[in-house]
Structures are given as C-alpha cells and as structure tokens.
Amino acid sequence: MSADMGTFRVEVEIENPARPGDRRMINSVLVDTGAELSWFPAELLDTLGIERYSRSRFRQANGNILERWVGVALVHVAGKRTGDDVVFGEPGDLVLLGARTLEGLNFRIDPVTRQFVDAGPAPAAVA
Fold it and tell me: Global pTM?
C-alpha cells in the first residue's frame, strides 16, 4: 500500500475579504480531511493584508502542541469560493486544505479518483 493513499494536492487561490480582487495562487496544497483548518504560509497571508486576529493551539499527529496565528480569508478551489478561518503557517509547516474549508466549499472527497465531488444539498432545518 502506498504511503500517500487517499491524499492528493490541488491549486488554491487566497483572497483578503477586505480587499476583493487581489488573489494569490498556491500550488500543490495537500488536501487533508484530518486537519480542521486550512494552513497557508504566513508570508503569503501577510502580503494580502489578512489580519491575524487570534492565536490558537493545535495538536499534531505525533502529539506535539503548536501555537499559530489565525485570520479570515476567502479560499478559491476548483471554481468555488468560501470564507474561513485559516492558519498562518510558519516555515516547516505543511500547506493544507482542511476539512472545514472543504465543507464550506461543499466538497466531499472521492478516495478512489482523488477528486472533489459536489456534496449535494446542504442540510437545513424544517420549520
């Protein structure tokens, strides 16, 4: 079995919601449904003027605890867009597209084809 079974990479564009129209492309972003938030290089988020509004703690798979800044960005993937909290990644951190962003984009993952699939109608409460 391959170590990368079920993983794939995509192109992502990031945009500051306060400065629409100015986007930055990130190639080869790892799709990681095991990560709650998406992680992007802090330098890129800073060049877009994305505000760092809180520090959060994250537990890595090996048990280590990291603390990183979080801000809000518009994330564009495969022709769709969502707004989400994103992590300001530091040198050595992985660049990830996390589960919450995928949910906001209304994508699910086909593990066989390693592609995004429309997740269909979102659940809604009945009055």
Answer: 0.89
